[in-house]
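Attaching the record inline, Q. Sequence:
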Amino acid sequence: MVILGIDPGLANTGWGVIETRGSLMRARAYDCVHTDAKDTLDHRLGLIFNRIGFAIREYNPDAVAIESIYFGTNTSAAIWTAHARGAAIAACAYAGIQVGEYTPMQIKQAIVGTGAADKGQVTYMVRNVLALDHDPKPDHCADALAAAVCHAHSTRTLRLAQQTLRKVNL
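Structure, as predicted:
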């Protein structure tokens, strides 16, 4: 299964593609869409839409995982992130790909084992889980790859649970 992970942000939207075979996971590609604060909002969102669309066409993912918005105390930043997230989701919808949404805590839990993990721990575990020979940079790429790993774990767990239920119901 090929999964595209997305870490949305108006200034920086990270994306990463992983491929899974059973419990084995490997990174295929990752990058970051950088937008300039001097550009208009429509230009910035168009760039995110186009670059995510390119990643979809290039790597043909079976599924997409995107980080949901953490609202914290800075609601203004959350609004800008929501715009970027919408552009990324629209690119996925345009391509007809189903999107799984995960909270930052769910992603950290899946990759590190605790929802309270810091960025360094997430980057370290992404590097190890995906057998990379270097830390994915910038952090937005590591977060996007972590979202993809989270989705891989979630879908694998769901498949195993369904198989078990089928066996019990036979």
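Residues 139-169 form the longest helix (31 residues). Helices lie at 41-59, 75-95, 104-111, 119-129, 139-169.

More tomorrow.
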